[in-house]
Design goal:
single chain, alpha+beta, Chorismate synthase, AroC fold, five-stranded antiparallel beta sheet, 33% helix, 20% strand, binds flavin mononucleotide
């Protein structure tokens, strides 16, 4: 399964094309739109997310609520486009450009992208670099999750810590509802209240915040990915996908960074077997992968999100037209996007998992795939 997205932040629409899905996968807008709503949410978002009510349309590949096996085209309209038709107009002319951005914003793609693509209006860079693109990737991820549901895979995403506060409550699957109801997607109500207070304070001070997010998957079969080649390793593929989310600057599987400071005897997960469960571990510090393959234990992906780069008290920068010192441009912006980023992480790791399931089990129809996964599960138990 491969996919491509296109579209600018303030252009008419985001487009996604997904290829390689099996036919007969039940699929409706209700499988995707709740994910888009979750991505838009979270305490600390800016005005843009009030303007948009993301919803997806199918433009190909789905008929009568099922995939046909043809490339699937997804469209998300940008409601805000109506305010930007002149600025985003593709027709020649339009000089001097309206809303041209020439003061490169530190922490953004502006300066490197301007140099690379020879733009002096840095809007040509930011429009595509914007995290708005992740709306379409989350839509693709929602489809991946629909597929994974037929293999018995369940997932969740939450915020482990943000605004300088860690949740004292370790994640437990009984807390899923609490996380889904939390405006900051945290496991502990007291921490949630403190984080909200800190977000309000940061906003009032013109500052921004980052945090640590986690996505978990249970029900994943062992042996997905491969130890054979570097680009087939599951942990490597997950890290690449996670790191491609804007503002994510650190990724770990399990307790990767903590493990690095401990002796091996306190890190590696002993292996056990019993008739009912087959092979299992009592600990999961490895986070669900060993040797580039899934172990069958819970897959735990953790990522660090830097604070939002656009500051209302802007940092010094340089105007790329005049080379004069300038204040960084203040594009409308979030105070924090940590809760939303956790949803994006969950959706996108789901894409990698769907890909490795499809690679291992193949099949043109959903039935073929499910049958092969079930046969493999029986083989794993008997091993
Ligand atoms: C869901 C989400 C929303 C974001 N919203 C903003 C925003 O409103 N303002 C901003 O400056 N950065 C925002 N970012 C982060 C920037 O897109 C990102 O930092 C920037 O494109 C530079 O890329 P890099 O941080 O990956 O190097 C957001 C990121 C995510 C994941």
């Amino acid at each position: 399964m491969r996919f491509l997205t296109a579209g600018e932040s303030h252009g008419p629409q985001l487009t996604g094309i997904v290829e390689g899905l099996p036919s007969q996968l039940p699929l409706s807008l209700e499988d995707i739109n709740p994910w888009l709503k979750k991505r838009q949410g979270g305490y600390g978002r800016g005005r843009r997310m009030i303007i948009e009510t993301d919803s997806v349309e199918f433009a190909s590949g789905v008929r009568a609520g099922r995939t046909t096996g043809a490339p699937l085209t997804l469209v998300i309209q940008n409601t805000d486009y109506r305010n930007w038709t002149e600025i985003m107009n593709p027709a020649p002319g339009g000089e001097p450009r309206k809303k041209a951005l020439t003061a490169a914003r530190p922490g953004h793609a502006d300066l490197s992208g301007g140099i690379k693509y020879a733009h002096k209006d840095l809007r040509d860079v930011l429009e595509r670099a914007s995290a708005r693109e992740t709306a379409m990737r989350v839509a693709v991820g929602a489809i991946a999750h629909k597929l994974l549901s037929f293999f018995g895979v369940q997932s969740v995403a939450y915020v482990a810590g943000m605004a300088g506060v860690w949740s004292p409550q370790p994640f437990d699957w009984s807390l899923v509802e609490q996380v889904e109801a939390s405006p900051v997607r945290m496991t502990d109500l007291q921490t949630e209240a403190e984080v909200i207070r800190r977000i309000d304070a940061a906003k009032a001070a013109g500052d921004t915040l980052g945090g640590i997010i986690e996505a978990r998957f249970r029900g994943v079969v062992p042996g997905l990915g491969s130890q054979m080649h570097w680009d087939q390793k599951l942990d490597g593929r997950i890290a690449q996908m996670a790191m491609s989310i804007p503002a994510i600057k650190g990724v770990e599987i399990g307790t990767g960074f903590d493990n690095a400071m401990k002796p091996g005897s306190e890190v590696h997960d002993a292996i056990y077997w019993d008739e009912a469960r087959g092979y299992y571990r009592q600990t999961n510090r490895a986070g669900g992968t060993e040797g580039g393959m899934s172990t069958g234990e819970e897959l735990v992906v953790r990522a660090a999100l830097k604070p939002i780069a656009t500051l209302m008290k802007p940092l010094p920068t340089v105007d790329v037209v005049t080379h004069a010192a300038a204040d960084a441009a203040r594009e409308r912006s979030d105070t924090t996007a940590v809760p939303a980023a956790s949803v994006i992480l969950e959706a996108l790791v789901g894409i990698v998992l769907a890909q490795v399931y499809l690679e291992k089990f193949g099949g043109d129809t959903l039935d073929e795939l499910v049958e092969r996964v079930e046969r493999y599960k029986a083989r794993v138990l008997a091993y």
